[in-house]
Amino acid sequence: MSQNPPSLRPDLAPKIKFSEPKRDGQPTIGMVSLGCPKALVDSERILTRLRAEGYAISPDYSGANAVIVNTCGFLDSAKAESLDAIGEALVENGKVIVTGCLGAEPDYIREHHPQILAVTGPHQYEQVLDAVHAAVPPSPDPFIDLLPASGVSLTPRHYSYLKISEGCNHKCKFCIIPDMRGKLASRPAHAVMREAEKLVENGVKELLVISQDTSAYGVDIKHAEDRGHRAHITDLARDLGSLGAWVRLHYVYPYPHVRQLIPLMADGLILPYLDIPFQHASTDVLRRMARPAAAAKTLDEIAAWRDICPDITLRSTFIVGYPGETEAEFQVLLDWMDEAQLDRVGCFQYENVDGARSNALPDHVPADVKQDRWDRFMEKAQAISEAKLEKKVGQFIDVIVDDIDEDGIATCRTKSDAPEIDGNLFIDEGTDGVNVGDIVRVEVDEAGEYDLWGMVARTPG
């Protein structure tokens, strides 16, 4: 048995899970994908294009003719991690192409690693392909290199991320993502639906909807309707819910119209799960962040959501130690947590990010104070999580099976748990006949701080 540590970073993408046999002489590209699930989708698109051109794909450095490193630039610590990954790829392979969010700062990367072959920014697919062609010319065999209809997936076959837009229109002082990825650019709703339909046809049981601001989907294209589908998050969620797969919404900014999604959850069309980045609860801190400062109204909204859909799971992320944060303002956050009783919580200690406006704010919080506040915040969040999970003991719930190890122990997720960032439900025995990707009913018999344990229900629950 294992438990998820409270320090899980919600911006990290799942680890790549991809392998395939290669033919003799086939050019091979390795991929290292860092950062959020949105970056993972970019990696999938790049590899799908490369696979269609006859390249084999390696999940590691072994046998790769060149390596693509898809970087993250979300925080300075993430930038350092990206630089380390580039350095490791250079040592292990020697031929390295850099893309992703940190690629928006090519001079910064070349200052540390001048020997890289090329640098491209986020979602610059054509430039990445050009760089690969220059480093490792394609050599396709049209009789062998056949691309599956579903493309290349870096996640298990039973779930997939579905990116509905790029960029963001917000100007939060601590964030540089709009500078790296641009303003909101929504995909046409019919294109999103076509991709979702293909994924479900190919066995995907869970669609994880992602963007930088999911609830703003369609604003930039005036909620255009085309081929029977309207580019509005409520309409899109309803349409996706008709496909029969689990539909999970991530990065939902708390606009008033979000309440329109809750009846869809109560009706079972989409999962009763909202991932909302509240960031803080103090009005003054939120103003310094350049975010809406309506924590009290947020509590009212949460109460209304739970009234409509009592089973709703709320996940969020917060920043402690933001410049100028006083002990009184931090206490406001702790008191708000007592009121909100969020189900899943992640927390960052504030970091300066090169180019962020928050760097220039006065009264930066000392590192030891940030650590102390992080510890206290996570202690409260952990206690809330433990109490909520304890109430699930004895309940019958549906879970999706992510893995079964050699001892027959199944690692599963409930409707309340997203891959990699939330908890798990473990089935220790009785998994004969259960397969990865199955959705099975279990009876919960034990709870921990973040995880549950249970047994396959032998009678209807």
If you had to describe this structure to a student in words, what would you say it looks like?
The protein has 461 residues and is α/β, with parallel strands linked by helices. The protein has three domains: 28-135, Methylthiotransferase, N-terminal domain (Rossmann fold, 3-Layer(aba) Sandwich); 159-390, tm_1862 like domain (pyruvate-formate lyase- activating enzyme); 396-456, Nucleic acid-binding proteins (OB fold (Dihydrolipoamide Acetyltransferase, E2P), Beta Barrel), CATH 2.40.50.140. It is 31% helix and 20% strand. The chain has twelve helices and 20 strands. It has helices spanning 37-52, 76-92, 106-112, 125-135, 177-181, 189-201, 233-241, 262-266, 283-289, 295-308, 327-340, 367-390; strands at residues 28-33, 56-58, 66-71, 96-100, 118-119, 159-163, 165-166, 185-186, 206-210, 225-226, 229-230, 246-249, 273-275, 313-320, 344-349, 396-404, 410-414, 425-427, 439-447, 452-456. The strands form six sheets. Strands 2-1-3-4-5 form a five-stranded parallel β-sheet, sandwiched between helices. Helix 11 (327-340) runs parallel beside helix 12. It is globular and about 60 Å long. Mean pLDDT is 87; it is low at 1-19 and 142-149.
